[in-house]
Specification:
This protein is an alpha/beta fold. It is built from 14 helices and ten strands. It binds 1-O-phosphono-beta-D-fructopyranose (F1P).
């Protein structure tokens, strides 16, 4: 079998997986609305590794859309340092795990329930796993199941699940309905990203990657940076856009690529960071949507994604682009993206 076959299929099949997921989510609408953010002191998202990064992005989206306090911590922190995580009052905990059997996530949920800290919702991909029966509501998204160790399709599918929670809780039904446009938009993005991914992935003069994303996009930048590490064993780090000037820019050189996941709202400020990095001699990849303000200087690479969807919804479309860049880089280094070095599909303690 060719190297990376599973990962490649999993990346390309995301639009179909999202369509399948929306069919699972629609009938759960009332069950989801049974939990209302106002009933809780905080909404807490958790996971490990990729699903912790997912939690970061889901918490940002939830707070932005609902105005309720929403935070994210790794499951190990809930388990080992609960006093950091739980204020007085009731927490709505949303635990996310592809496998549904990662030890820290199970420990975190068990201690949460034992200590009667609030209500638990779980999101996972395998119905027969322990997490899938621990919550007051268990959302199972089988179209995210994967053969590969590094999460791609599972990540975006579970993230879509959290987008459904946030849009429904916000009361903005048009945003929940707009999720239906994502499979088609995702297919177009995958097509348009292939050229850029090949060019960047095969460029052996690059030795370091920096992924910049702010707001909802920070967790996504973290995840894409992790993909680059796991699949291609390359030096890769994520930062909030404006943080990059405060130290990390020391690492900019002509072998460095700075990939910006720009927003529309703050696109100009974010574009200015990218321009500074061009001036310092770095290579810049400007990822944005068609109506994001463009920076006057020409980045090394630019990819403009479909823009018709609301800003909060379309961020998910950055994922297939970055996943594909990491995949191409792994192949060009002779690595098998399906089997990252030292990694297991599930961490069991
Ligand atoms: C979480 C996770 C994966 C990672 C690795 C170890 O798993 O950190 O993100 O790729 O294989 O486990 P899960 O709880 O989401 O199944």
């Amino acid at each position: 079998m060719e190297q990376g076959t599973f990962t490649f299929q999993e990346i390309l099949s995301q639009p179909q997986a999202w369509a399948g997921t929306l069919e699972v989510l629609k009938p759960l609408r009332q069950d989801i609305l049974h939990f209302q953010p106002e009933g809780y002191t905080q909404i807490l998202f958790t996971g490990c590794g990729s699903t912790y990064y997912l939690a970061l992005s889901a918490a940002a989206l939830t707070q932005e859309l609902t105005g309720a306090l929403a935070r994210a911590f790794p499951a190990s922190e809930l388990w080992l340092n609960p006093e950091l995580v739980y204020p007085r009052g009731k927490t709505l905990l949303i635990a996310v795990s592809r496998s549904g059997e990662t030890s820290e996530t199970l420990h975190a949920c068990r201690s949460f329930l034992e200590q009667q800290r609030g209500d638990l919702i779980t999101l996972s991909c395998y119905p027969e796993m322990p997490l899938a029966e621990m919550g007051a509501l268990n959302i199972i998204l089988p179209s995210g199941q994967e053969q590969s160790v590094a999460q791609t399709r599972a990540f975006s599918t579970l993230y879509l699940g959290t987008m459904a929670l946030a849009t429904l809780w916000s009361g903005h039904n048009h945003l929940f309905e707009a999720l239906n446009n994502l499979p088609e938009a995702g297919a177009r993005v995958l097509e348009s990203a292939a050229g850029l991914a090949g060019q960047l992935g095969q460029d052996t003069t690059i030795d370091r990657f920096y992924w910049l994303g702010s707001g909802i996009r920070y967790g996504l930048a973290c995840e894409l940076s992790l993909k680059m590490k796991e699949m291609s064993l390359s030096h890769s780090e994520p930062f909030h856009f404006l943080e990059f000037r405060h130290g990390p820019k020391s690492m900019v050189a002509d072998s460095a690529v700075i990939i910006g996941l720009r927003s529309s709202r703050n696109g100009q400020m974010e574009g200015a960071v990218l321009e500074d990095m061009l001036d310092l001699g770095g290579r810049v990849v400007d990822l944005s949507f068609a109506n994001a303000p463009l920076s006057p200087k020409t980045p090394t690479h630019r990819l403009t994604l479909p823009s018709l969807l609301a800003e909060e919804i379309r961020n998910i479309l950055y994922l297939p682009v970055g996943q594909r860049i990491a995949f191409e880089r792994a192949l060009s280094k002779g690595l098998n993206p399906d089997r990252p070095t030292h990694l297991d599909t599930v961490v069991k303690l």
